Amino acid sequence: MAGRPLVVLVGAPGAGKTTVAAALSRRLGVPFRDTDRDIEKAAGRDIPDIFTNDGEAAFRALETQALRTALAEHDGILSLGGGAILAEENRRALSGHAVIHLAVSMNQGVRRTGMAANRPLLVGINPRATFKTLLTARVPLYQEVSVFEVNTDLLAVDQVVDAIAAWLEEQNT
Ligand SMILES: Nc1ncnc2c1ncn2[C@@H]1O[C@H](COP(=O)(O)OP(=O)(O)O)[C@@H](O)[C@H]1O
Ligand SMILES: O=C(O)C1=C[C@@H](OP(=O)(O)O)[C@@H](O)[C@H](O)C1
Ligand SMILES: [Mg+2]
C-alpha cells in the first residue's frame, strides 16, 4: 500500500480541507483520506472526546502518527487537521510533498465552522478573537509548508477543486 499523496491540503478550520479533498478525489477518481478521520477510527472515539478526556497534547501525538502513516502509504488526496502544521516534526515530514494551502479569512472561517460544535479549539465565548489569534499564529506556517495557495473565501467547493485540478495539470505539462 506504499504510496505518496497526489495532493495534501492544509489550512485553518473551515477552509474546506476535508470537503474539498473528498470532492477532488471524486473528480480525479483517486482515494480520499483525512487524518482526523484516521485518528477517530484508530481511537474509536471522536475528536472532541479525545480533546476533553486526553487533552490536546495527546491528540497532537496521535496526529503526528496519523500524518506519518498517511504520507507513507496514501496515494490519493489527503486532508489534514488545521493544527497539523504546528509541530516542526510534521512540517519537516511535509517537505517535498505537493502541499496546497486553502486560505480562509476570519469572517468566512468563523461562519463555516460556527454551525458545528465539533472543533474543540473554537468552542468558547469569542470565536472571532480565537480564530484571529489562530490565523496570526498559523498562516506563516501554512505558507511555509505549501507550494500553492487557493483563497477559498469567494469560491464554491467546485471552484476550489477546479483551481487545484488546473494546478495539477500545470505540474504535469
Ligand atoms: N468553498 C466553500 N464555500 C462554502 N462553504 C464551504 C466551502 N468549503 C467548505 N465549506 C463548508 O464549510 C464547512 C467546513 O468545511 P470542512 O471541509 O470541514 O473544513 P476543514 O476541513 O478545512 O475544517 C462545511 O460545512 C463545508 O460544507
Ligand atoms: O485547528 C485545529 O487545531 C484543529 C482542527 C480540526 O480539523 P479541521 O481543520 O479539519 O477542522 C481538528 O484536527 C481538531 O479539532 C484541531
Ligand atoms: Mg477537516
UniProtKB/TrEMBL annotation:
An MF annotation (GO) of this entry: ATP binding
Reactions mediated catalytically: shikimate + ATP = 3-phosphoshikimate + ADP + H(+)
Principal location: cytoplasm
Gene Ontology BP annotations: amino acid biosynthetic process; aromatic amino acid family biosynthetic process; chorismate biosynthetic process
Subcellular compartments: Cytoplasm
Taxonomic source organism: Nakamurella antarctica
Cofactor(s) required, per the database record: Mg(2+)
Family statement drawn from the similarity comment of this UniProt entry: Belongs to the shikimate kinase family.
Binding site for ATP: G14, A15, G16, K17, T18, T19, R119
Pfam families: SKI
Presence of the UniProt keyword Magnesium in the record: yes
SUPFAM superfamilies with a match to the protein in the record: P-loop containing nucleoside triphosphate hydrolases (SSF52540)
GO cellular component terms given for this protein: cytosol
EC class of the enzyme, as a word: transferase
UniProt-listed CDD domains: SK
Name the record gives this protein: Shikimate kinase
Phylogenetic classification of the source organism: Bacteria, Bacillati, Actinomycetota, Actinomycetes, Nakamurellales
Cofactor note (record): Binds 1 Mg(2+) ion per subunit.
Residues the record lists as binding substrate: D36, R60, G82, R138
Quaternary structure and partners: Monomer.
Key words, A-Z: Amino-acid biosynthesis, Aromatic amino acid biosynthesis, ATP-binding, Cytoplasm, Kinase, Magnesium, Metal-binding, Nucleotide-binding, Transferase
Protein's pathway: Metabolic intermediate biosynthesis; chorismate biosynthesis; chorismate from D-erythrose 4-phosphate and phosphoenolpyruvate: step 5/7
EC number: 2.7.1.71
Domain of life of the native organism: Bacteria
Functional summary from the UniProt entry: Catalyzes the specific phosphorylation of the 3-hydroxyl group of shikimic acid using ATP as a cosubstrate.
